[in-house]
Amino acid sequence: MVSPDDSKKIIDLHQRQSIQSAAGDRLGDLLKRVRGIALKRISALVGVLFENIDDALFDLAEKAENNAAQTQFFDGMREVRKKRHLVERRFQEQVSKAFTDFAEGRMRTARPEVAPQAGGGLSLVDDQELEQSLAVSGMVAKANSRWSRSLFQINQRLSVVTGGGQVDDGSNPIGPAALGEAFREATREFDLGMHVRLIVYKLFDRYVMSGLDGLYEEVNGELIQAGVLPQIASAPARPSAGAGGHAAAPAGHAGAPAPHVDAHADRGRYDPATVAWQTELYQTLNKLLAGRRSPAHEAAEHFRHESELAAPPVLSPVDLLSALTILQSQNQLAASRQHAQASSMADAAQAVQQIKQDLLDQVQRIGSGDGHGHSHVSSADEDTIDLVGMLFEYILQDRNLPAQMQAVLSRLQIPYLKVAILDRHLFAQRAHPARRLLDALAQAGLGWSEEADRDHRLLDRVRQSVEKILTEFDDDIAIFEHELESFEGFLDQGRKRAGLAEQRVAEAARGRERLEEARRTAAREILQRIDERVLPPIIHAVLSRPWANYLVVALLRHGENSEEWRNGLRFVDEFVWSALPKGTEADRLRLQKVKPQIERALRHGLGTIGLHDNEITETMRALADFYASLQGGAPVERKTVREVIVERACLAAAGAQPAAEAGQAADAAGTAELAGSPVEEIVLGTRTIEGDRGEAFLQEDEFLQLARSLRPGTWLELVDENGHRERAKLSWISPISSKYLFVNRRGLKVDDKTLTALAAELRAGAAVVLEEAPLFDRALDAIVARLREDHEAA
Asked: Which domains does the chain have, with CATH numbers?
């Protein structure tokens, strides 16, 4: 018999199951509607994408610099046309799968990763995967930044729909990260060269990622209609302008709490670890700055805040901004003093302190005019003034920046002081527009040098950005965002030109490396067969010169596993055997049989390397005379390859010609060469058979480890024997010789160095690795370290 209590429990259980089932149905229905909207919108965008891929590749093919590039673009067009519908279907399947994983709680943060290589070795596949990962992550970061507000709303609403689970840009099934990875997986169906594939990614960014606003607007509308967080705020509001054009309520003004680091206001660059680090760094800065004040000073400040004075002596943030605006408008004071940059650290510190003193003097004048007597700035505002001063003092001392760039950027001290007073997020958020602009200007200056910017195009553009901020910035921080977009557009144009030049330099270096490796391989194979062997001079002459060059051509054109390469080595063996004395009848019969084959192979090889018909005829005649002497039993001169080559080098230096008949035959055969003989270069000691492998015997130390750790894209400052400094980017590391190729910011070759040579220059200070971290991050780290040292010393 069921008791009333048990009956009640059963009813509660049924009700709870019914409620959970209804919630599950609602969850499925909402996600299905969002998925339907997404698939419809994205299909339309992808359709536009593929219509434009064809036109873009055709235009590139028409403008191609050579037939090979044109063929690559036309092949890409055919491949895209052939597999377009397959890729579209695969893309939709990937998007649908993302929704399924999301609904089942299996959706993880989407991050482009390089596919692991079997066996753990490095290969061309690794480089291609890395290039694709960088392309996808770049477009995702840009889209996250562009649609940060809409994504924030969708993330919050989807979090509610899923029962409170955390949803961020990376785990959102319609976020740029998920869509980028879906497109990457779908386009694996294409058999495209890396250059064409990257063009397809660029077009996906242009026609799909840039068109996601309609999708996000419709999804947010659908979720609002379903009653999911209809009143959610889009993003933190920016300070509004008050009367007189000044900010009425600057964020983080005196007496306000330290700003909270809002992850979703971080322009789509949210990462929990990064945000936590930035928050901790900002709090550390505040503590260290506050720690500089004496207890008596703190007590006085506390008394002022607690007292009921009719006219508080602390200058308001609006008045402080007015003082800064006055200084900014005074060209001689704010610009000339900053533009004439100090040549030493002491002068730099003096210039920074002078700006603070000028500001405090201006504050006193404003306070006196308002009838407040001797007004002063609050402790918080004074800390901000000092912090910005230390930031620009760091810029003046930063060896990563050339002196000319330091001089230009240091002029921004007053505008950035205004930004810091208007919005304390400048120091708390890495994605603050003013901070990103300063980082972008500094990053552009990282690779600047007089040699690479002879027309001062980059330097003038940086000056233009600085002048725009100096003359137009009042209290609207949006000007930094606009100028950042404009400056990045300028940089993109330069990167495209530099990228093409850098690609040509790298291709030329790869060609030289392949040629050198082929020459060493051919020489090694021949010397293994004839070194130290006593043979007729004509045999040495043919093998060490024309045939060595034929092997080089066969290796470059067909590869080491080709029939042409194997036949070339087989000829060497047969040719050497044919010159040996024939003591038996069987050997003499075999010689008669193989001699026509040797002659045909030799004639083919000499023709392949472009030898003139007259020279081929002369060589074949000399070879026929040799075989006739050999079969007739006449004495045949025999030497080692070293004797033959050294004798030829001496005769060539003396301008003489060999007098003996055998020497004349050898001379006829030796005229066939392609830019010298790899065998002769090794025998004469001008080249080693193993290339530059000295690093294997060098004692391991920190500089050799540093050289090995460098990756393409790293900037260095190189100093030659005359003290001339040049900024160069590591563009390419040869997989054959491990040489490091360096280019300037225009993509032109600066130098190439072996691993040992680079390590030696790092050890001697003739090469210095420049830091890749953003300027603002480096400056804040240095400021924290400096304040800690001051605190410990005190």
From this structure: 21-111+125-225 (no CATH), 274-503 (no CATH), 531-683 (no CATH), 693-776 (2.30.30.140)
